[in-house]
Design goal:
The complex is a heterodimer of chains A (292) and B (337). In chain A, helix 5 packs antiparallel against helix 6 (147-168) and helix 6 (147-168) runs parallel beside helix 12. Chain A has helices at 2-16, 47-55, 89-94, 109-117, 133-143, 147-168, 193-200, 218-224, 242-247, 253-256, 266-269, 275-286; strands at residues 42-44, 62-64, 99-101, 121-123, 174-182, 185-187, 203-205, 228-231, 260-262. Chain A has 292 residues and is an alpha/beta fold. Chain A is built from 12 helices and 9 strands. The longest helix of chain A is centred in the middle third of the chain and has 22 residues, at 147-168. Chain A has 2 domains: 38-164, Nitrogenase molybdenum iron protein domain (Rossmann fold); 172-291, Nitrogenase molybdenum iron protein domain (Rossmann fold, 3-Layer(aba) Sandwich). The radius of gyration of chain A is 20 Å and the shape is elongated. The model of chain A is unreliable at 1-30 (pLDDT under 50). Chain B is mainly α and 337 residues long. Chain B has a single domain, classed as Orthogonal Bundle (ABC transporter involved in vitamin B12 uptake, BtuC), CATH 1.10.3470.10. Chain B has a two-stranded antiparallel sheet. In chain B, a hairpin with a 2-residue loop joins strand 1 and strand 2. In chain B, helix 3 packs across helix 13 (279-303), helix 4 (96-110) packs antiparallel against helix 7 and helix 8 (194-213) packs antiparallel against helix 11 (235-257). Classes of the chains: A alpha/beta (292), B mainly alpha (337).
């Protein structure tokens, strides 16, 4: 069942739209990236990149996006060049882009190489870790020819993130489980992008450490007794019994105190301009008292 | 071993021994887990302590689920092997499981349209298993003969085809549905809901009862269709009943636990070596042995890595795949295929 395991990887992967496999062989140059002539036609391969480009004011020059791109609303009418995990090289070339900007994924690695081979410039900064965010945005801005806008956006995001961080600073950490699926039970691990956000929101992650997306044994969760459960699989029509799943575990502090939440924020899943808003949503679930 | 050697005493002895072994297995497996329990608190059914919640709401339902799923797969395998006169028949290898999964996924994706009834998905999985069995067996029959290799190859092709359709569905549905489909396909034996365990037990016992009612027919059918007809078996009717029963078993199992391979292959073989091929004994003994095997395989899956677990299908495939190769080579040497 190799295809199924492969699909697992790709999907979990697409879920966060970030990764650890760099597309480009080039090193991220330290300091300020070099600025190329302003490109007139930009193709975006990832939702977070599309959002960033629009936030940078480069939106009118975005000529095509991936099928996963859905924000801001005007991108829905743009031509699509395939999904984030499997872009079509032909469709991209047909757009005659001056630059293609994406986020690395195992599925688009070959496409990126093929584009570079035909002389199209490809940028794919890797937002695997929260700390890489400023550099990722600077590189997207440089590729789009608007480095100053990039600095401004980085400063805005940093300031907004800091506002949230300051709210929860000094509060006692809460034990939190963030689940992306119940059957099997798969959690957000501390080494993933979302796991880093959880930690910044003042949470102690109860999932086993060192794994990005651990498939957790339920009794382990019961023993670690999370005070807050954030379940991204709840609240969809497919998962009508999802809340009942947790209610059958009455010893959990989260269940006893009514701190089991459905969470389906697109914002937080994307390392882009809407991240601070998503981060605040998350922090409000971990530390609601900070906003009272 | 010929039909008719089976005495009531032997039937009771073998099944009694296996039942005792299963009971011991259930108790032992429920005692084992990544979390150390304080038994005085764990056995308090008022669920006042985490130990009790772990024991009654995670371990016990999971161990029971593993037993039911393992039993169902082994019984379905035993029946298919007799019906198809093929020692390598297994719901997983023949594509019956992937057919069930495919139909289940279609129902899952269309569920908003299908009024969202909870029984739609298991029912679709059952129908998918049944349809797949007809297709695979039908395509494998050339000149009214069912050759082992043809059957296995058609199974391989059918698996690939169903896999491709699953991939196709997953690539056209929206992002959240793709996520749901993926998790449904992975499945797991973990549940906190005794209602699910009970429903699964009910479905699989009906399937097993249907097979047991046909046990003598299966004995005759394993001698060949013509021979069975001479012995008074209504071949077509026996075949249909067995297909329906096996589909019920496989469909029910796939809709809760995803695809788990090799249990239906390995267990009936090992059991047959000891009990002979009288299905009045082979079917219940396979059910019990399959239950024991999967409970232990799942115990390994949920404890081997501490707080994280590996899919139980990985454990069964690691045990089952080498065994399959061994069987294949042995059958070839004997010229049995």
């Amino acid at each position: 069942m190799r295809w199924r395991r492969g699909a697992t990887t790709v999907m979990l992967w697409a879920l966060i739209a970030v990764s650890g496999v760099p597309v480009c062989a080039e090193e991220a140059s330290p300091g300020r990236p070099t600025v190329a002539p302003t490109p007139a036609r930009i193709v975006s391969l990832a939702p977070s990149v599309t959002e960033t480009l629009f936030a940078l004011g480069a939106g009118p020059r975005v000529v095509a996006v991936s099928t996963f791109c859905d924000y801001p609303p005007e991108v829905r009418s743009l031509p699509k060049i395939g999904s984030f995990v499997a872009p079509s090289v032909e469709a991209i070339i047909a757009q005659r882009p001056d630059v293609v900007i994406g986020a690395p994924s195992p599925g688009n690695h070959d496409a990126a190489l093929a584009l570079e081979r035909v002389g199209i410039r490809v940028e794919a900064p890797d937002p695997e870790h929260l700390s890489a965010m400023p550099d990722v945005i600077r590189r997207i801005a440089a590729a789009a020819g608007v480095p100053d806008e990039g600095e401004r956006l980085v400063a805005r995001i940093e300031a907004e993130m800091e506002t949230v961080r300051r709210r929860v600073a000094g509060l006692p950490r809460r034990r939190v489980l963030m689940a992306v699926g119940q059957d099997p039970l798969v959690a957000v691990g501390d080494t993933s992008f979302l796991g880093e956000l959880l930690a910044e929101a003042g949470a102690t992650n109860v999932a086993p450490p060192g794994i990005s997306w651990p498939r957790v044994t339920l009794e382990f969760v019961v023993a670690r007794d999370p005070e807050v459960i954030i379940d991204t699989s709840m609240g969809t029509e497919q998962q009508s019994g999802a809340a009942a799943f947790w209610q059958r575990l009455p010893s959990l502090a989260a269940v006893r105190d009514g701190h089991v939440y459905a969470f389906r924020s697109d914002r937080i899943l994307r390392p882009g301009p809407r991240l601070p808003a998503g981060f605040e949503d998350l922090a409000r679930l971990v530390h609601p008292e900070a906003w009272r | 071993m010929a039909v008719g050697q089976l005495t009531r005493a032997r039937l009771l002895r073998v099944n009694g021994a296996l039942l005792a072994a299963l009971a011991l297995t259930l108790v032992a497996a429920a005692a084992i887990g990544p979390v150390h329990l304080d038994w005085r608190r764990a056995l308090d059914p008022s669920l006042a302590s985490p130990d009790a919640v772990i024991f009654f709401r995670t371990r016990v339902p999971r161990v029971l689920m593993a037993a039911i799923v393992g039993g169902a797969l082994a019984a379905a395998g035993a029946a298919l092997q007799a019906l198809l006169r093929n020692p390598l028949a297994d719901p997983h290898l023949l594509g019956v499981s992937s057919g069930a999964a495919l139909a289940g996924v279609c129902a899952l994706v269309l569920r908003p349209v299908l009024l969202g009834h909870t029984l739609v998905v298991p029912a679709a999985a059952f129908a998918g298993a049944l349809a797949s069995m007809w297709i695979v067996v039908g395509l494998s029959r050339v000149d009214r003969r069912l050759e082992s290799y043809t059957l296995l190859l058609v199974g391989v092709i059918y698996n690939a085809f169903a896999g491709a359709l699953l991939m196709f569905i997953n690539s056209v549905v929206d992002f959240y549905q793709a996520h749901n489909v993926l998790f449904w396909l992975m499945g797991s034996l973990g549940t906190t809901d005794y209602a699910v365990v009970g429903a699964l037990a009910l479905y699989t016992f009906i399937g097993l009862a249907m097979l047991l009612a046909r046990a003598r027919d299966l004995d005759c059918l394993s001698l060949g269709d013509d021979r069975a007809a001479e012995l008074g078996v209504r071949v077509e009717r026996a075949r249909v009943t067995t297909f329906i029963a096996a589909s019920l078993l496989v469909g029910a199992v796939v809709s809760v636990s995803g695809m788990i391979g090799f249990v239906g292959l390995v267990i009936p073989h090992l059991v047959r070596l000891r009990t002979g091929s009288d299905h009045r004994l082979l079917l219940p003994a396979s059910y019990l042995a399959g239950a024991i095997f999967l409970v232990w395989a799942d115990t390994a899956a949920r404890t081997a890595l501490g707080g994280t677990e590996i899919p139980v299908g990985v454990v069964t495939a690691l045990c089952g795949a080498p065994f399959f190769v061994y069987l294949l080579r042995r059958e070839r040497r004997r010229g049995g295929m």
